[in-house]
Fold each of these.
Amino acid sequence: MLTIGLMHYLVLSAAIFCCGIFVMITKRNAIGILIGVELVLNSVNVNFIAFDRYSQQPGFDGQITALFVIVLAAAEAAVAVAICMNLYKNINTIDVDRGDALHG
Amino acid sequence: MSNYETYLLAGVAVPFVSFFILMLFGPRIGKPLSGWLAVAAMATCCVLGTLTLVGWLGEVDSGTAAELTAAAGESQFHWADIGSVPIKVGVNLDSLTVIMFFMVTFIATWIFVFSIGYMAGHSDEVDGKSKYHRFFCYLSLFGFSMLGLVISSNLLFLFIFWELVGLCSYLLIGFYFDKKFASNAAMKAFITNRVGDFGFIFGLMMVYFFLGTLDLDGAAAAFADQYASGTGLFDPSFTINVLGWHVSGPMMATLMGIGLFCGAMGKSAQFPLQVWLPDAMAGPTPVSALIHAATMVAAGVYLVARVYRLLTPDAQLFIAGVGCITLTAMALIAIVQTDIKKCLAYSTLSQLGYMIFGLGMGAWIAALFHLMTHAFFKAMMFLGSGQVIEGCHHEQDMRKMGGLIRKMPVTGVTFLIGVLAIAGFGIPSMNLGLGGYFSKDEILAVAWDRAGIGGEGHHSDQDGHHAAASGATAFDLVSDSHEAHNGDDRVAGHALATDDADHAGVLKLMFWCALITAYVTPFYMMRCWWLTFMGKPRDQQVHDHAHESPMMYVPLVVLAIFTVVSSYALFRPLIADAAPALTDAVLVTAYDGHADDANHAKGALINLHGAHDWLFWGVGWSWAIMFLVAIVIYRNGVGLGSKLKSAFSPIATLLEKKYYFDEIYDFMFVRGCRLLASISAFWDTYVVDGIIASLTSKATERFSAFAGRGVDANIVDGVFNGMAVTAFDLSNLFRSPHTGRIRNYVLFTAGAAAVAILLLLFFDPVPDAQAILTSAGG
Amino acid sequence: MIAPKQLVRSIALLTTIATFVLSLWLIGPFLGAGSADAAGMIDIFGSSYGEKLHFVQRADWITSKNFTIEYFVGVDGLNMPLMVLTSFVGLLACLASWNFESWKVNKGIKGYFALFLLLETGMLGTFVALDFFLFYIFWEIMLLPMYFLIGVWGGARKEYAAIKFFLFTLAGSVLMLVGLVAMFFYSSEAVTRYASLATSYRPDVGVLTTGTFDLIELATNQAIQTYFNATDTYFLAKGLQFAPLMFMFLFVGFAVKLPAFPVHTWLPDAHVEAPTPISMILAGVLLKMGGYGFLRLCYPIFPAGGHHWAYCLACIGVISILYGALCAMAQTDFKKLVAYSSISHMGYVLLGVAVMTDAGVQGAMFQMIAHGISSPMCFFLVGVIYDRAHHREINRFGGLWLSMPKYGTMATIGFFASLGLPGMCGFIGELWVLLGVFAARDTFTWAVPMAILAASGVILTAGYILWLIQRVYLGPSKPEHAKFPEVTGREMLILVPLAALCVLFGILPKHLLFDFTNGTLDLIVKTMAAAPERFGSLAAGL
């Protein structure tokens, strides 16, 4: 029987992380990118909890951090959505490639 | 504080109050009233001045004056500290102050009265706004400043009031500032005075630094003390290194005296700063009378008299030289003047030269006596000329006048009294004469004595005074020890030469110049009077309109009476009373300080210098001879004069052009300064700013512009450009990933993270990483 | 930003009035200093520098294991008059901004007054701060509002002028920042190396064990002074002596503000483009930061550096005086002329400080205050006529005294004060400085020629000011100016106090200023004078 160890969680986390990055790279829709970001954040959460669970002195540090990240993610999502709205208001689309006024 | 101080301080304050009221409420007070306010203020001053004078005469008689002077020196106001040197200011209460105060207030009061009459006939409205009140406002300010100058016990305060009278002069010369020449003249006056003040400030610095105080008496005491004890300036080892030029103490003392005298050169319009005074006649005539003849221009003489105790023989000689050049050169110019006011202006310059010359020659009392008498008769003559100009509808050219005595008898007669006074009218061997006969001739007599023309042994009658000879001996000792100490006899020898024998030639030359000028003066004054008042009218239109008004001739009469009185009584005794204290100098000698008899100079002169018969007769009748010459030449108008002028045309042109001083100064200083200014501005805009700005912003702009046009061509432009271009290229390189697309950024970030992790795994920069991963897997 | 638009001006005015009234309160402890003799002065100012500070407030602001940055403010004779001046000029400038609606750029009144008040905060803070870090913060705070005030509400080339102002000042303050950090670390080194000397001036601290940003501590702690001014204390590389180098770093920062030749070029541009009230503040207060910086930082902390550079600085001072005056003479823009005259006048401040004699330093201090009164007046006079004529070409004016007599009178007072007419404020500072330079002749071989050159500045000054008066106010009245309205009540409200102060400061310099400042200045001068003896060859370097 396969024992679920730390490595499995890390592989899962890496997979989710890569998905998130992939979404962020390929999507041109701002909301899509936002979803990618959420994936990345959640992969990090998985990592935190896993490391906490498998560390020599298990405690609640990782879980608390994960909670913290979730709250931050929510706040970040709110800000990001507000940015999307403003972007739409200004250039009538949420295609992020069109918002390149600041490119160097 | 004695009564006298209170009177004097109140006398200074009253015109200031008047000035303040007129400045604030002048337009509302209106036309005649604001004038009368100023007159009332000045008359109050005059009353105070008279009270002081009368009281003071009593004190002098009872011998308590010296105590009062000392007491006044004690009660001083602590005004400020320069560094740690306290500057105290108080009233300089002595006979000279009292008599100057009276003279200024008296003349000013009558000139103010005259001004009301004068301004009544003048259009003072420009653009519908009256300047009438402003005229009296400035006059009041002048009264305040001039009286402040007279009573100041401190050099710094003297300087402050000195500048304030300069300001008033500026404002009043430029009173008709809508005329270009008036505002030009005002500016010229102020800036020329500033040149003199530059020297004055330098003199102040030296007094402050070497004598440790700016108090007049304190400085004199310190000077005498240093001389007596051989410290400070008279320390044999004293030397200042100015750019490798070693200045000895006595030379520094000379420079100090000359520095202070520079101020007097500006204000009393001495050569070579004389250029402003003739132009200053652009101001209203009462101003010319008050400021540019009677009071302010005499301030320079007053200053030299006050700092007499700080002078060295060399400085004194310098002063005499400057005075001599001025009195001669300016008298010659006066001969060719055709403008009545200019003619008077040049005679003022010449007379001021006499006073300065007198101080330089050691005729302290005579010079100040001349200041007093001159103030009265010159103010009167200027007012007379104002009356003439006013009566002739602003005609100032004497060639168009003539025969005015019939239309203006009072003016003509009073003017003649002035002419007689300035010419030194008097009957030799009789106690009868006017103004200059006593004062100017006394200056000449002292000069004669000093120059040694009257024979040797002239120092013997300096009883009761520092003999020049003993002064010289004492100083020679200092010099000798200095030489011994330094081994440099050139420095010490050059520093001070007290012995007149060294300068006998110069002294003689100066005396002859002054003597010859005593012959020139009656000539040009009589020419002026004759052309104006006698002969046939040369311009009928001018003649028809001529008239005089009582408002204006009353002051003339009063001043004429005082011209006569001042020649005999009142002035000389008080000046002589002030002399011993103020000429108690360690290095220079006042040769007439002992002649304190209440009688006038001529008598004293005869008694003291019996050998002067030649001089006595030679100068005594100069007025008569030259009057005659002038009348002969000008009896039929300007015809003969013009012929003479064309006969001597090069000289006449030189004189008419005032020796080309204006042209030279204009070229050298005015244009030079403006050129320098333009160069500075150019330099500032294009070089300083160019360099600094290009180092900051412009460089960046330009280099990026270069790079934009092409890299290859510009790399060769030099290292500096190359660097900028490289920077630009690099930034372009780094710019390219900045697409502004989020996914690109994410890709870079993720890629970089991946690379970092791979490096971490394979190169093991962190020793424990492998172990951590291993344990995690386990 | 929340105030209603119509109330903005009133709120700003009330604030500045309140500030002014409160700043008058600062004078309190200094009153009566002059009535006592020298001993009385010492009682008020303390027997050593920084001993008797008034209105001291101290609190730890940023603390860490290694350093403490304090909120440390206090008032002594050096900054008290400058603070009163700041609040006074601030009040008048606020009044001068009252006609904001009629300006060319009249948008954003809220922003304007907000930045204006922020600027005043920065200026007052800079003067009152006694902790170097706090000083630096305020110094930078001041910069930003000024940048926007010039850049947004300025004239035609406002962007250029604002950027130039910003870059010059920033370049100066970068060097100051280096100095700030270096001085902290070196002071930390000093107190460990000379622990026996490191007794603090504060009894509650006792012996100092850590580095410090406290300006008074830096100037008075013997350990720090000894180490800072020693000949063998180097910075960065061997041979670069610490005191001269740090002195120069700080000096450059302040010289830009002063401004001294050759880093003065931002000033004419900034003045020409800035709106009138901002010019008043710029000339009246900001330029004083430079002189204040010399007297608060450079000289007390690095007296040896001061001696090292004395010649150089005095020369810069003389050059500024003459060069500024010559440049002023050539200007045809009214405002630019006044700007260049500021450079000339501030040259006296530098010269007076550089010779390090008591008369010189007193004169420099007086000159700062005097210029702080006369130059806002001159700039406002320019503003008055600019509001009417909408140009500043000197040669196009003429005869203004005829059409506007009150204005002409005020202008005469203002410009004659600037000219240094005795009896007015400009004279005292110049004379004291000149006497101070002359008094330095024992230490300076060149003191006498320098005094002569600087004194010849008075002739040049008279030249350009009188020429200006002649071209603008005298001469025949021109028809296009004849209809100009006379100065309004509001304008008189600004001009009259300034004119009155111009005269009062000239008449009573001791009672209005020297009594308040001389105690502190004497203490600073004593520190400077003692330097050659204490620190040997470095101080005697030139």
Amino acid sequence: MLRSLLLRDLALHRRVLITAAILPFLLLILVVTVQGQEAKDMATALWILGLLVLAVLPHSLHLREDRLGTLIGLLTLPVARREVVRLRFLEGFLASLAFTTVYLTAWIVLRHPPRQEVLELVSTSAPLWLLLVFMAYPMPFVLRWGGKGLLGALGLLMAGFFLYVFLVMFGPRVLHVTWVAAFDGWLRHAAFPTYLSLGFTWGLPLLLGLTFYGVSCWTLERVDA
Amino acid sequence: MKILLSNASPHPIYEQIVSQVRSQILSGALKEGEALPSIRKLAQILQISVITTKRAYDELEREGLIDTVGGKGTFVASPNMEFLREKRVALVEAKLREAVAEAEMAGLAPEDLHQMLTLLLELEHA
Amino acid sequence: MPETLLAFRGVTKRWPAFQLEATDLDLPGGLILGLMGANGAGKTTLLKLLMGLVQPDGGVIQFKGMDLREGGAELRRRIAYVPDEPRFVPELRLRALKEAQARFYPDWDEARWKGLMADFGLDPAQKAGQLSLGMRTKFALSLALARSAELLVLDEPTTGLDPVFRRELLQRLSAEIQDERRAILFSTHITSDLEQRVDRVAFLRDGRLAFCQDQDALRDTWVLVKGGLDLLEPGIAGTFRGLRTTPFGFEALAEDGEGLRRRFEGRALLERASLEDIVVLMGKGTAHAA
């Protein structure tokens, strides 16, 4: 069933998907232009940027169906709503994976980066965190409230981020030292896993992602189209 | 078989079907053993409800005019003369009753009505 | 009696602005059920509840005795649905749209689909964005009819279509259910669509099911009474439905045709009520004593 759903989306959203597929090549042009010491940082930054765009791909597909009025067609197919949620998550993962593969392969072929740099990039759990924050977390909001839901979820995220920054800067010392610092540590270690156990940086986003998946299923099963 | 339905008629659709099929069987236009369309087919052709055609066929079957052979279809029955005669007498009686009512409304005396009937019979047999 | 294909039992949906009250419906195999009602009466909501697009607040919907909420996805394989004003991705060709949908149905009949497209005057190479509302409905119908679904659910399938095609469609639908295992449920606000082949009529008024009866019985039950205002004694007017009075007389629906015929003895006009009469006058509600 999931296969049929994927093929359906490939046909229906051909335009969006082709645009998304061009993305790694656009970013690679930028990568190639930067020489010297900054090359690795540039490659990392653009990779993250690409992942960010692809993390919201499932949302844009869902919102597009909503806008075009084809959501009714999707939800009346002989497919459980849980499968539709599974489809959206899968689309996010597959797109990120495909992008990473193409992008990193091209980067290696074009720039011959040192082995250490490649390993560092491949072993980070940053993409998982990105998918968690930008795909899994807003998903229930999108399924329930559409475009407004996405904006609301991202707004909430921004508010949380500013609160965090505020606490770090002006919060009581106790807070700063204990959990804010710990949270700060998580984020840092997520991007540089060499400092913390892999199980933690990979396990936590996976667990949270599964939770949001469950919430998404629960939400879509109760939505009136 | 020929069926013409009228929405303007005061008679329900199923009655219209029954009376038209009945008169065609009685007149011999529909012969014994002849196949009738299925309930669903008839509904589709006439564009009326299957419930209506079923009701009409049930009525015709009750009158002994048609037979439904399970799995094969519906056929004009071998006529039961006694029954048909009774039906016809009842029909004549009903029509006469209508005529009597009309006559009363028109203010005709019973003698006038008798006279009219006699005259009509003479004309018919002349 | 053929087995009940579809049953609504006390199905309720509450929204802030609209309520569908506890609804009971029965659709046996081999029948066509016409769902009537003004715009906003709840027709689309009722069909969406059936398709699982809208979640009920109470009651059960059964397909062949199975709860549609539990077995929904699998059971939907045996149900075909044409939504009200169907929409498609505009830049895609009809062939591609068909391809995307047909994959979900093992009983998809490609030859049949091609035949339907030709009958409906549609070209598979056309893009969906070029289609008018009527043509989109026809395309959705081709997708629904190209498989042998046991239940066809059509939401206002005649909107945007000309009278000739409307009549052809009804004939096509009645040809579809030549066997008793299939049934059709369609909604419309045009009475003439139902006047014909429809077996059972359900009438929704402000989210409430006013009646669900066989057309045959419905038209046997109700007579249209017309007469002078002097006939409108308080006792009798109370039994009328949808009473309408003018300076020259009154018009109403009544149940007891024989009784009225005896009572009025030719002073009133009694006619067989058409479906249109029934729906229009019932839509007005119970008569108030004049």
